[in-house]
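General statements about sequence and structure are easier to judge against a single worked case. In the encoding step, the backbone of a single protein was reduced to a row of integers, each denoting a local shape. The record that follows shows the chain in one-letter code together with its fold in token form.
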Amino acid sequence: MKDLFITRFQYYKELAEKTFEQLSEEQLFWKYNEESNSIATLVKHLSGNMQSRWTNFLTEDGEKSWRNRDSEFENDIRSKAEMLETWTKGWQVLFDTLNQIKEENWNDAIAILGEEQTVLDAVLRQLAHYPYHIGQIVFIGKMLKNDNWKTLSIAKNKSIPFDIEKLKSLDPSEIQENSSPVCYAKSDEVRDDYKI
């Protein structure tokens, strides 16, 4: 199970990093308005959360006394290099800790803000929290790049060609037969544009 979680966290980490790569240093600090966060501020918050939650994860409350959550929303990172260093620091703590979890730990009790929960629940909680903010990072990137945005998934209005290419890469024995032309491509009822 640990490997699955590492894979999922890595996936979302890479989505944000592919966004960073498309943006100028100035764009990483852009805010829509005073109530909004810049990408750099979101990075600072994520890193602060990761360091607090994952340091001594199995033995200490996930909300450390040394964490100052409010300061994470102060936009005081000054360069892309500093932002990336902050980003890397948080993820390093997360991955180091995940690698220490053993199968027998998943039902162990830990605390976050004094609330007892299992290790599994705490990991799932973070797997929901981090993609929430990474989605914000990607959305800001898309707004800033507009027509120059390089999609991180299947391009808009390109699902059918993507599906066809995916099916072409499969061994014919792996493609399921069914009467539904919507679901399967190995049917006499499939429209021509869906055939492989």
In short: The radius of gyration is 21 Å. The chain has a mean pLDDT of 89. Strands lie at 109-112, 115-118. The first helix runs from residue 2 to 22.
